Each structure stands twice: as C-alpha cells, then as structure tokens.
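Inputs:
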Amino acid sequence: MDRPTDEELVREAVAGDANAFEALVRRWEKGLYNFILRYLGDPERSRELCQEAFFKAYRNLHRFDHRARFSTWLYTIALNLCHSAFRKKPWPRLASLDESTVEGEAGPQLAETVSDPTIDIEGDLGRDEEAMIVRAAVQSLPAELREVVLLKEYQGLRFREIAEMLGVPVSTVKSKMYAGLDLLARKLHHGRWPVQAKRPQPKE
Amino acid sequence: MSACNSYRELLMDALYGEISAADRTAFETHSASCSDCREDFERLRRVSSELRTWEQVDAPVLARTWPARRRGLRHFLGSPRLAWSAAALALLLGLLLRADLRIGGGVVQLSFALPGVAAAPYQAAPAALDAEQVAAAIQNAVAVSEERQRRELALVLATMVEQIETDMAHQFYSVQSNLDRLENTTFRVVNASQAWGSER
C-alpha cells in the first residue's frame, strides 16, 4: 500500500477531502513544531504559531504551487510567522556563553568552562546538558544565520530550497551556513576540541 | 584555521552531501594539498554532529488541539447528546411553526401548515379540548424547551472544561520543562564551579 505523497494529499484536500489535510498535519506537525520551537524557544508561543501556520496553509492551499515541495512551502509560512513573532518579542534570554560563571566576579566564562579539558563533558554532564549548551549556542546566533542553520541542520532542506524560501542566491545561503557553523565552532569549542583535548602535562 | 574562501561553498556542499561529482574531484584535489581546508572540514563536520544532540521533542499539545478543533464539529454533530437536543428542538419548532393553535368562540382549532399540503383545519369538539388540556400542552412544550437548553448548556460547559484541561496540561508541561531546565543549569554551573575551584 503506497503512502500518498504530500502533493497528492494537497490535491485531495483542495478537492474537499478534510482527512487529506489532517494527514498532512499529522505528517508535518512534529517537524514544524520543532522548527518553530528552536527558532522561538518558547513552547507555548511555538504551539500557537505552529497551529497558525497550519491554518494559514489550509486557507491558502489552493494557491500552493506544485513546483515546490509542500514541506518547503509550509516552512516558508512558518518562517514568516516566526519573523513577525520574533520582532514583537524575542525569546527569553538564555545564559550567554560569554558570561562569567561566577556572579559578580571575573570568573571563567561559560564557554571556557564548557570547553575546559579538565571537565569531561560527556561523562560529567551528559547528553542533556550538552544539548542545552548547543541550544544556547544556536539561539545566540544572529537571526539571519540561525534560520539557515535551523533549516539546513535540523529540517534537512537543500541549499537550493532554502535559497528559494529566503529569496537569496544559493551561494549566499552556503556562506551563511559556513558563517553559522564557524561561529558555533568558536562558541562551542573556544578554538579547541572540548572533549578530545588533553591538558598538556607540565614538564618535570 | 579557516578554509580558503573560494572553497567554502564546496565545503558546505561536501559536508551535506550535495556536491556534484566534478566539484568533489576539485575539492578533494584542493584538500589534499591544503591542510587548512582539511582541518576546517573536520571542525565543521564535528560541529554539525554536535548540533544533533539537540533533539526533537514531541508535539503532544499540538497533536491534541489541532485535530480537536477540526474534529470538534463532527464530534459535536455526531454525539448522542446533540442528537437528543436536536430532536427536541425540531419537535419544539414543529410545535411553534407548523401547528397553528386558535382558540376562539369556544372552539379550539388546530391547523398544520405542512409544505405542499393545504392547511387541514382540525375542528376539535369543545368538550374534547378544553383550556386545561391546552395549558398542559404549553407546559409540555416549555418543559421540552427547558430540557433542550439544559442539555445545550451542559454541552457548552463540557467543551469549556475540556479546553481548560488542555490548556492546564500544557501549562504544567511548560512549568515542568522550565524546572527541568533550571535544574540542569544549576547542576552544570555547580559542577563547573567546583571543578574550577578545585583547580585553583
């Protein structure tokens, strides 16, 4: 039994089959919700926005141009909603990696602590904490880099699709992606590998 | 430690498997002789894999609310409660609109204005349909209407309660995840500063 493609479901939904659109929602809600959540950082607002994106898609379904993938179209709608939501209210401030870990003192910066080779990140802190550090790093990226990183790394869109969504040349998307990853590498590693790096042994 | 500018695009293509065969050859030839580009590729590949530790979460709340909103109407129309109140409503409307009750000159006349059927006046014998019976019929109609309104109110309240429960569930989830996050942060910061303290 073949699973209908997104585009087939769109045709059925436009023809008046309500179940077809529900199938599309079920197929994409997780991806879309996570994209918005990573963009906004607030579960409640992300839920509302995700719902709004689906309603918007539903209302404009007859305008969907079958040259693009449905998912790309859906992400474009969500991205536009995110842009306006973010302008109104940026996400709650997270701990900055450039901040001191000791309040009111010139202690080590969070990024230093994170990449401190004496701390075994994987053993000591575990995967959840590592994910939290990644999250903080991604959310501290400038918006124009962050959205490219989110679309590419987490939603797996192709460079060409992201370029179409943003209305910029493919080369621009690639250089933004490079800049984003480069910045993340600096934030996460502080110029060193966090886990593999060994502390140089003092010579006797 | 940064790649040669002109190879950055190819580096991105290679990293995400979108590189063409010809470009791959060009990139590999260059990388073989450029340690900066090799290191850069490795560095960014590592970042990319680290980013994956930030995993997707379920969208439980959305999954509940979006279909619920769409399923809502169908659910509503299909429910036995509504079927009963709809039947009651139809009966009441029938009584109010179709049946024309005339009381005058000691005669009670009931006529039904059915569509396509000429009104068929029904002459009731004065003895058979007195004021008491009319009062009883009205009381009955009012009772039916009250019952219908009660059921409709119950339905509206049930819907509201469901909505509030959904919202509360989400808020609890939100508070819970914030608490988790706070706990994680505290744990990390304490660990980190202990490690820092012992080092000094």
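Residues 163 and 170 of chain A are 5 Å apart (CA to CA). Flag for discussion at group meeting.
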